[in-house]
């Protein structure tokens, strides 16, 4: 080292890969990157930024006033009331400085020890309701304050007062706090620690904006569905910045893909060496916790207590993200060689041309309020369905599209692309997905019942469709985006123009929630059935037959309507699970009953080669014209309603919980399909 030259600060748990400073060409590519991102609205203008600051300042004043008022009611001396304090902290994308136009603000109200959580949800709630500037104020949902959407959490510290210069990064603040306050503080502590651990905050922010935009455009931004959420992407970008501390955004984006396309998962991503603060809180440690050993893509939060922010990642979602990292590296190589523009990096994939088989998951409700609640619950459990499917011995990949699509006002659809294993030693194989999907719907209904959400008209339906049938659910321009249209495609599009379908906005980036909360799940393993050698392969249906057969269930259909629909089933085999009164036709096989659902480990359960046994399997009705074996619907057997078992956790019910039956009936059907070599 030259005399008088200061050693560079060391970041992260390893030394840097390169200390190279940017060249002129790197600065030019960074400016081009900024210009490419502007059309997507990722940058906030000065007026909106100042408006957010004004809103947070006013909310901070409300908090101080409220804490002073509550302190007086608890007989604190006047001298203490004056200095009791209170403060609003921000976290998430706003605190990191990477929020987009119109994005929510994640905020935390910090109060002294004499202020109870019950005070926050009672007196502070009432205080906010008195202000005309605040609307849509609800517990557990963001409120709108002066046209800003704010999600406000609460934590009280074991301190007599809250000074304005309080730093939440100190671990000693967690002493003597209940777990709810520790969880509330965790968002701010993690965000602050990330910013502290990066070499250059501005380069980090611009790089993170680019990576978040790329992840949303490529359909891999959703912690809830098993991809990565905002904090996880921030930690990956922060680790890249540590490895290349002097690089600018254009270089960092390229290095991001270079590093993580070659990362050997499940080796964890760490921003700092984990520390033990002797507070006896549970931390991520696979040496101590056996369940941590099954995490497939661990990214560990830097603040104590350290947690894995990606426990929802499954085998399929990790495979999809690994492929996207490699594709991103290829594209950025082309960009830095002058062979492509940055806009190519943000081109969305054509999900609907990628797979030959899809599962269409439909969630319906009868009112707008019920629809919002129901869709939220169903979406939070889709990762359970993905886990079930990918454990089927004949399925190699289950890829859920994070964007949901409207069918009509109170119906939402999700699409899951399926890759089946190539057949080697058999001419055909019969695959039964009934158990995989039914165990998922049972889980959703149990959860809805346990939290008293289940209402008439709430339905889930899963349908298997082939790629050529997708135009019956989606606009042709969305299905065929990026594909050169053949004459047959054009004819099919013109013939289906009269179908009843809601228009969709293909420009939407992502409809998933930017969240990093949830709990790991355990899912039952799937069922599959091998085709007997004596069986005759079933012929594939013609396009005209496919188009005639497809249907989406009508909400609130009468019994006669359901009976009529059952005579003309859709081409894709369907599992409708309809909740409602007077919509169930008479069944001829009342003795059939579903078996108990086993539990497995997240991401680690072996493939299950055999079907769960049923006492009386229903008769198959072979439909050689449509190529599917369809079973008659089976009603769920009546369960003793005196059973009042409640679960210790409301996040994911276990298989022993009863499926609700009090006047809310569920129709069960089957999805079985035949694959030919």
UniProtKB/TrEMBL annotation:
Keywords in alphabetical order: ATP-binding, Magnesium, Manganese, Metal-binding, mRNA processing, Nucleotide-binding, Nucleus, RNA-binding, Transferase
Domain Poly(A) polymerase central: 203-347
Pfam families: PAP_central, PAP_NTPase, PAP_RNA-bind
Enzyme class: transferase
EC number(s) given by UniProt: 2.7.7.19
Record field: compositional bias (Basic and acidic residues): 616-625
Domain (Poly(A) polymerase RNA-binding): residue spans on this chain: 350-406, 410-483
Comp. bias (Polar residues): 517-526, 533-545
Boundaries of every Poly(A) polymerase nucleotidyltransferase domain copy: 12-198
Subcellular location as annotated: Nucleus
One GO MF term attached to the UniProt entry: poly(A) RNA polymerase activity
Any one of the GO CC terms: nucleus
Region (Disordered): 484-549, 583-661
Catalytic activity reported: RNA(n) + ATP = RNA(n)-3'-adenine ribonucleotide + diphosphate
Gene3D superfamilies: 1.10.1410.10, Beta Polymerase, domain 2 (3.30.460.10), Poly(A) polymerase predicted RNA binding domain (3.30.70.590)
Cofactor or coenzyme needed: Mg(2+); Mn(2+)
One GO-annotated biological process of the protein: RNA 3'-end processing
Family: Belongs to the poly(A) polymerase family.
The protein, known as: polynucleotide adenylyltransferase
Organism listed in the record: Pygocentrus nattereri (Red-bellied piranha)
